[in-house]
Amino acid sequence: MEAINRKTCWVIGARTATALLLSGTLLALCGVPGALAEEKPAPGPLAGTTWRLVEFQSMDDAIGTTRPDNPSKYTMRLNGDGTVALRLNCNSASGSWSAEPASDRVSGRFMFGPLAATRALCPSPSMDQLVAKQAEYVRSYLLRDGRLYLSLLADGGILVWELTFDQGIPLPLEPRH
């Protein structure tokens, strides 16, 4: 492949940054050492979003649907670097998350890695222990109507989160039927 000088690379990069997202390939062509080795997969549609808990839908009729007394006490920030920060009433948790979008980009696989959480005794009623306990069983997600549905393993239930609107990050549109 023909060598490209740095001035040309700057012009190519500046004009096509949106389309190419300054991919490792372009950087490698421009002579940036290690560019391909440093390449990371593009973040999915959930990266950089913040959510507020709406409810937990149990598949056990004896439990039913549980809603927090104040949804703003339960937030989840899915950072672009694969880390997650949760506020769970008077507790907090942090760890990792991963998602693999399906071809429709509004659903796919989702998992939390191990979460480190504080364990203060929050005033009743509190859903902090429920959310922390169920997080390890999350296996998939669905985006619909500004909400994120995190489904648990073996139909154990669904954690429903709503997007906080202080971020301006567009989410993929769900397919129209």
Can you describe this structure?
It is a single chain. The chain is of the alpha+beta class. The protein folds into 2 domains: 6-38, no CATH class; 49-163, Lipocalin (Beta Barrel), CATH 2.40.128. It has helices spanning 6-20, 24-29, 35-38, 128-135; strands spanning 49-58, 65-66, 74-78, 83-88, 91-101, 107-117, 138-144, 147-152, 157-163. An 8-stranded antiparallel β-barrel has the order 1-3-4-5-6-7-8-9. Strand 5 (91-101) and strand 6 (107-117) form a beta hairpin. The longest helix has 15 residues, at 6-20. The relative contact order is 0.16. The model is unreliable at 1-42 and 172-177 (pLDDT under 50).
What class would the helix/strand composition place it in?
alpha+beta
- CATH fold annotation of the largest domain: Lipocalin
From the coordinates shown, what is the CATH architecture of the largest domain? Answer: Beta Barrel
Q: What's the level 1 CATH class of the largest domain?
A: Mainly Beta
Number of strands: 9
- Mass-distribution shape: globular
* pLDDT < 50 runs, ≥5 residues: 1-42, 172-177
Biggest β-sheet: strands ordered side by side in the sheet: 1-3-4-5-6-7-8-9
Radius of gyration: 20 Å
Q: What percentage of amino acids are in beta strands? A: 35-45%
Number of domains: 2
Summarize the main sheet. 8 strands, antiparallel, barrel
Mean pLDDT: 79
